[in-house]
Amino acid sequence: MTTQEILAYVKQHPSGKVKLAVTDIDGVLRGKYISAEKFVSVAEGRLGFCDVTFGWDMGDVAYDNVKFTGWHTGYPDASVKLDLSTFRKIPWENDIPFFLGDFVDDNEKPGYTCPRQLLRKVLADTTESGFSPYFSQEFEWFNFAETPETAHQKGYQNLTPLTPGMFGYSILRSTLKNEYMTDLFDLLSKFGVPIEGLHTETGPGVYEAAIKYAPVLQAADQAVLFKTAVKEIAYKHGVLATFMAKITENLPGCSGHVHQSLWDKDSKQNLFYNEKDPHKMSDLMKSYIAGQLHCLPQILPMVAPTINSYKRLVEGAWAPTTLTWGIDNRTVALRALPCNSKATRLETRVVGSDTNPYLALSACLAAGLYGVKNKMKLEKEATEGNGYRDLSNGILPANLYEATQKMKQSAVAKELFGDHFVEHFTLTREWEWKQYAKVVTDWELKRYFEII
């Protein structure tokens, strides 16, 4: 739609309001309603939005260690530029108009703390190199027959799963709660988040969805909106959805695998495909994989951003622990899928469902492009069989603190994303680790209370 058509729709909508949102460092959408009149006045200008968005954590507790904003700045408003190309209608809110925005500074330059702006930067680097990146993200998540109130009252323990038992790809279970599953598929598509597949995954009440591939910025928008939209649609059905990477040690974790390929500048040729290669992989694809293998340990918090992320990355739990690549192998970190000129792609399996899609996709693309620019070679053959046993290229950092320190000291991370972003982001991850480290957990009470 043109700007004039968008403005006309907003003015004519019976609600008289617009919903808009920005994304914080954790990938949480922060937004509000504004009047249609207000929207018209800022649609092609700027909107004030409190910069505490990047000054507190996902629990709204103010950081005491970041420089960007804080008590020392007084938490002023920052400027947000609405991206009219993200216009959507929210079908479960009477088709109210919705928009995403980007943070810019006083000189109209991208805000360095803004995850969406970071992806724009990486995309610009990729386009300048002559490539068109196409991405998609898939998600697994648990669904519970609970509300936020009941889950809180139960202390998030002994929650009732939407369906019992381990039923991956179950036709029976998709029939059992079909109204919810049908709404997910239909309403997400109407919301501009097209779903290619939706099914039950192994685990009580677990679903998995694959979002249709798109140009990388659009793919990230779709992924960010998917997570919030699923939760909102779930509310309508008396369901509580969670995208935690691991809810219990007794069940598999939840992935957020990223699929990616580079095309030519006209988006007509998949540059990852080479029919003459024994594996149908181009040299470009091999360099892209080599770049990710090299960079991932140095930027891991961008794809494993929480304390909980590392509870998923354990041996034998359908999540990688080693720096490995393989061809159609689900035990490795990087699963190459060379099949034909259209669908050949790389799947980065380290990524969990708890990620901020803007950061996860930025990490994958920048790391792959690093390998391409430096003409890196795959030093080892594809891992066959059990990737957990292949330690030849090293292992991933074991926890958020270790991963954050590695990123904080990494010259590669700073080259890819800039000193200011790396400093701010790693400080937020150090904050997250400190919040965790001071808490007495249930595990400690059960283990030590009586016996020690």
Automatic annotation (TrEMBL):
Keyword annotations from UniProtKB, A to Z: ATP-binding, Ligase, Nucleotide-binding
GO BP term, example: biogenic amine catabolic process
Domain GS catalytic: 115-452
Keyword ATP-binding: yes
Gene3D superfamilies linked to this entry: Glutamine synthetase, N-terminal domain, Glutamine synthetase/guanido kinase, catalytic domain
GO terms assigned for molecular function: ATP binding; glutamine synthetase activity
Pfam family, one: Gln-synt_C
Family: Belongs to the glutamine synthetase family.
Protein name: Glutamine synthetase
